[in-house]
Amino acid sequence: MGQQAPLQLISQSRLDSRLRELVFSTPYLSAPTYVRVLLPAKYYSETTRRYPSLYLLDGCCNSAPQARDWTTPSSMGDAEQLTANDNMIVVMPDAGMGGMYTDWYNNGLGGVPRWESYIIGQLRPWIDAHLRTIDDRAQRAIAGVSMGGFGALKLAARHPDLFISASSFSGIVDSEYGAGVAGAEFDEALAAMDGGAPGSVFGPHATEDVRWRANNPVDLAGNLRGLTLELRVGNGDPGPYDQSPTQLAESHGEALMHEENVILHQRLSALGLAHTWDDYGPGSHSWPYWNRDLARTLAALRTTFAHPPALPATISFTTAEPDFTVYGYHVELQRDVLEFATLDGVTVRGFSLVGSGTATVTTAARYRAGHRYHVTNGTSGQTLTANGQGRLVIRVDLGPSNITQQFRLGATTQSRRVSVAIAPAAS
Q: CA–CA separation, 52 vs 87, rounded Å?
C-alpha cells in the first residue's frame, strides 16, 4: 500500500440524530472526498459502549458524492431506516463515479486516485481512532452494490485480516468476464467518468491482465476463506419492484451481473468456501432490490458479529503485490516482473511460499522474543533468534525470476514452492 500520507478532516456536519457527513482531504485523491456515517441510536447516550462497523459501498455513475446514495431514501438507499435498530456503525465512503475502489495504474504513471490506499490505509484507521468502533477483524464487515459489490469483495480478498464478512449486491464480481469486453467497459467507460484515459484503472487488458486479476474477486476467491460471504443477484427479468422505465432499462445490466455472480458462486463452491447464494430470480439492476439485499444482510450480520467464525487453522493468501502484509506476516519479494505469489499453509510451525525470485518473510509476532528457533528452509537449515517483538526474519530462495510479466503474450511463468518449517531449537 505504500507509506501513508496524512488524512485531514476538513469539515463535518450532523445531519440528524444518527447521520453525520464528513469531508476529508488526502494526497491520495485529487479533490476533497465525502464520507457519511450512521451511528447507533444510543451512541450519544451510552458514552462508553463500543460497536462493530459495516463499510457500505456504493456503485458507479452518479454525479453527486456516492457517499450520500445509501441515505437518499426517496430515490436510492434506505440504509438509515434499515439500520434504525442495529447497534453498529455504518461507514459509507465515496469512490468517484467510476473509481473501482482501486489505486489507479494510470498507464504506468501511478499517482491519484488511490482509492484502496485511502479507504484501507487512512479512512479505516481514522474511523477506529475517532469513533467508538471495536477495532477488530471479528467486528468489521464490508458490503456493496454493483461497483461497490466489486469493491467489497476485492477489498476483503486483498485484506482478509481486516474483515469478518463480505457481501455483494448485484456486484461486478468478475472483471475477466468476456475476456476483454469487460475491460473496455471498466477501464474506458468507468474511468472516463472520473476524467481518466483508457488504461487508467488497471491498464490495457492485453498487456496488464495480471493487474486486472490481482484485483478480481474470482481470481482472489481463495483469500476469502474464514469470512462470512454473501452473493445476492437477480437475473434481469422484470421483477416485483420493476415499474418505472428506468428500472426496466436496467434489466440488461443485472443479467450481466448474474452471469458474473454465477462464475464466482461456482468458484467459491469449488474451493469449498461456504457462502450465501441468493439467486433471487426476476429483478433489475436497481435500488429497491439492493435495499432488500441490505435488509437480509443486516439480519445475517447480527449473527456474524455475535458469533464470528474462527480464523482458518491454516492461512493462505495470494497476491501480485511484491510487498504485502497479511495476518501479521510481511513479505518482500525481489523479482523482475509482476506475477502472482502465494503465502500458503501458514501456522506457528511454518509456511510455504510460491513464486519466483527471492523473498524476505517476517513472521507474525507468535514466537518467544530472544529465543532460538531451528528453521528448515527448503533443503537447508539454520538457527534464528526471534526479535524483541517475537518475530523471525527468514530469507526464501524461489529460484530465478521470471522475465515476462504474467499473462502477457508469450509469458511462460514458472513458480517454485518452498516449504519452511519452524521449531524451537534445542537448548
A: 8
Q: What is the pLDDT of residues 323-358, one digit of tens each?
A: 999 999 999 999 999 999 999 999 999 999 999 999
What would the mean pLDDT of 11-21 be, rounded to a whole number? 98
Residues with Cβ within 8 Å of residue 353, at least 6 apart in sequence: 331, 341, 342, 343, 344, 359, 361, 396, 398, 417, 418, 420
Which residues contact residue 380 at a Cβ distance below 8 angstroms, ignoring those fewer than 6 apart?
none
Report the C-alpha gap between 395 and 375 in whole angstroms: 10
pLDDT digit string (tens) for 263-320?
Answer: 999 999 999 999 999 999 999 999 999 999 999 999 999 999 999 999 989 999 999 9
Task: Please name the helix (run of DSSP H) or strand (run of DSSP E) that holds residue 129, with its range, or none.
Answer: helix 124-130
* Strands (DSSP E) found in 126-197: 140-145, 165-169
Rounded to 5 degrees, φ, ψ at 3 are -70, 135
290: helix, strand or coil: helix
What is the amino acid identity at position 32?
Answer: P
pTM: 0.96
Residue 272 CA from chain centroid, whole number: 20
Quote the radius of gyration of the chain (alpha carbons, Å): 22
The CA distances from residue 272 to 150, 222, 231, 232, in Å, are 21, 9, 15, 19
Residues 6+ apart with CB under 8 A from 133: 50, 51, 52, 53, 89, 127, 139, 140
Residue 185: its pLDDT value, please? 58
Percent of the chain scoring above 90 in pLDDT: 84
* Cell triple for 79: 440504509
Nearest 5 degrees, angle CA 75-CA 77-CA 83?
145
